[in-house]
Every structure is written in structure tokens, then in C-alpha cells.
Design brief:
The complex is a heterodimer. Chain A has 6 helices and 10 strands. Chain A is an alpha+beta fold. In chain A, strands 1, 2, 3, 4 and 5 form a 5-stranded antiparallel β-sheet that branches. Chain A has a 4-stranded antiparallel β-sheet with strand order 7-8-6-9, covered by helices on one side. The longest helix of chain A has 36 residues. Chain A starts with a strand and ends with a strand. By secondary structure, chain B is mostly helical. Chain B has 2 helices and 3 strands; from the N terminus they run H-E-E-E-H. The longest helix of chain B is centred in the C-terminal third of the chain and has 18 residues. The two termini of chain B are 26 Å apart. The N terminus of chain B is likely disordered. Classes of the chains: A alpha+beta, B mainly alpha.
Chain lengths: 249, 68
């Protein structure tokens, strides 16, 4: 069945690039549906086909249909992001028809426009902290002559580890607070893939300052055995607000 | 024993986007609609829940592929 795949909220009147096409296999033109200053980017898709995207999926690779569609989704969002602020929808958001889109625009009018103002002229960067791998040389000096000295050395080593981890947690907290004060906005992504995984909303014109600032933070946290990496830029995926219930009984 | 020299973060933009970063963003973030404005096929939110579980699998697969 044909339905409307929805990519993002944008301001009405946003310039959609000529020839921009949406999710395959249909690759229908991306168009803008508008109501009262707010717009939503959509394209026709086969919803039934989309619902099978996880069938036969074991390992996800670049060639998986999921990966292909996710990149197509991101491409549409990024293409329009060059022309103005976007609030991306979660992947797989499908509206039944244009009337549903219109109801959505009406229901979310104030919230979406406020969030669009918040992210206007800004983009998202990921800042992550990782604990540096520790060499295993610590045990090489363990005195194994007596059981007691072995246990004492082991106990010291465990205490050292605890202290190290505590220092790293403190350093991560310090970075989180520092960037929360420095940037336009931050969200702790809690991805579990790093000691700290922070989404940082940065003014485009402050980008160089941002890199310099992160560089300074990296020097500071290196003492605690932490490494910093950054990735981006992204449209403001992480700053889109909480889940939205849109019911029309 | 000499202390390792603290090195500056590689704070330059990363060119290209890793698949795990991409999926982590488009699946886990963004405006999440629910209710009857969204199509539910077979009573399951179209993709969101399954993708969450899948993402955990992706993360594991990627980690296993990284050099030790």
C-alpha cells in the first residue's frame, strides 16, 4: 500500500532541492506539506514493503536493506538541512495519507516551530570519552614469595583500579558540565558505547571554537587516562524532544 | 619511567559516517510519533521496536569485527 514516509519537520517555505528523491525502491520525489508556518517532508513509499525490512536480517552490513534505507533517510534530511533547520523523524515513520500529515502539523504546530527555532543555524556533534587501554605490566612486580605479599599486592592493584575509575568518572562528569555550559545545548546519549557519549549542539559559526575547546578538554582528561573523539556534523537528531503522541479519536 | 605525552584530541570532523553511528541516530533519535497518525502493521509499531533490538546486535557485530 502506498503511504507517506515522513522525514522531518521543517519551516514552511523551506526550499526542497530540485530532484531530491526519497526512500527506495520507489524513490519518489520528496515534497513538502505545509500548514500554518510548519511543514513536513514526505515521499510516497510502499509501506508493506518497508515493514519487511527486517526479514532475513541477521548481520547488518552496508549492503543490508536496513542500512541502505537508513542512508537514504539521512541523505534526505541532510540535503534539506543545507537549506534550513530540520527536526528529523525517527526512521520508519510512515503516515497513512496527506490528511494525517495535516493533522500532525496542526497538533505539533507550536512545539515543532519552537524546536526548529532552537536548532536553527546549529548542528550536532558527538563527543565521546573512552578509557585508554591499560598495559598489563602491573602484575609483573608481584612478589610471589609469600601468599600474604601476593594478596597485598593484588589488593593494592584493585584499589588503584578503583581510584583510576573514580578519576575517570569525575573527568567525564567535568566534561559533561563543561560542554553543557559552553554549547547551545547538550544531551547525554547514554549509548553505553563509551564512558561518555554526549550530543553537543553547536552554532555553525562557532565550529572552530568548538574544535579548539574540545582539544583543550582532551589534554585535561588525558591525565585520567581518557581519550576524546568527536564525530559529525549531524542535523540535530538528538535534540528533537520527547516522544509525541498524536491521536485523533 | 617516562610518562606518556598527553596528546591533543583529533577534534577534526570525521569524514564519512560509520554505519553504527548512522543507525544509532536515525533509529534511536528523532521525533517519535505514536498513535493513529502512524501506520501500525500487524499491531507492531512499524519498525521502531525491532530496530532497537537489532541495533544491539549491530553494535556487538561491529565490536567483534574491530581489531583486538
Amino acid at each position: 500500500m502506498t503511504a507517506l514516509y515522513a522525514y522531518a519537520f521543517v519551516n514552511a517555505g523551506t526550499d526542497v532541492p530540485n530532484g531530491l528523491v526519497g526512500l527506495g525502491p520507489r524513490q519518489a520525489p520528496v515534497r513538502l506539506l505545509e500548514r500554518d508556518g510548519l511543514g513536513v517532508l514526505v515521499s510516497d513509499v510502499d509501506a508493506t514493503r518497508l515493514s519487511t525490512i527486517l526479514d532475513d536480517e541477521e548481520d547488518v552490513t552496508e549492503q543490508s536493506e536496513l542500512a541502505v534505507r537508513a542512508r537514504e533517510h539521512d541523505w534526505v534530511v541532510r540535503s534539506v538541512f543545507q537549506r534550513g533547520p530540520v527536526l528529523p523523524f525517527r526512521f520508519g515513520t510512515v503516515l497513512p495519507d496527506a490528511e494525517a500529515a495535516d493533522r500532525l502539523l496542526a497538533a505539533q504546530h507550536d512545539t515543532a516551530l519552537a524546536l526548529l527555532r532552537h536548532v536553527d543555524g546549529r548542528q550536532e556533534w558527538a563527543v565521546r570519552l573512552h578509557a585508554q587501554a591499560q598495559p598489563n605490566g602491573d602484575s609483573s612486580h608481584v612478589d610471589r614469595r609469600t601468599g600474604r605479599s601476593y594478596l597485598a599486592a593484588r589488593s593494592r592493584r584493585l584499589r588503584d583500579l578503583d581510584e583510576r575509575q573514580a578519576r575517570q568518572r569525575d573527568a567525564a562528569d567535568a566534561v559533561r558540565h563543561d560542554l553543557a555550559a559552553w554549547a547551545a545545548d547538550t544531551v547525554d546519549r547514554r549509548s553505553g558505547r563509551a564512558l561518555l557519549d554526549l550530543a553537543v549542539l553547536v552554532d555553525r559559526k562557532s565550529q572552530d571554537d568548538f574544535f579548539e575547546h574540545v582539544g583543550q578538554l582532551a589534554v585535561t582528561v588525558a591525565d585520567a587516562g581518557l581519550l576524546v573523539d568527536t564525530a559529525g556534523p549531524w542535523p540535530a537528531y538528538s535534540f528533537t524532544g520527547r516522544a509525541v503522541e498524536v491521536s485523533h479519536g | 619511567m617516562a610518562e606518556p605525552v598527553a596528546r591533543q584530541a583529533e577534534a577534526r570532523p570525521v569524514t564519512g559516517t560509520s554505519l553504527i553511528d548512522l543507525l544509532d541516530r536515525v533509529v534511536n533519535t528523532g521525533v517519535a510519533l505514536s498513535g493513529d497518525a502512524v501506520i501500525s502493521l500487524a499491531g507492531i509499531d512499524l519498525i521502531r521496536l525491532d530496530l532497537r533490538l537489532l541495533l544491539v546486535g549491530v553494535d556487538t557485530a561491529m565490536r567483534l569485527e574491530e581489531p583486538a
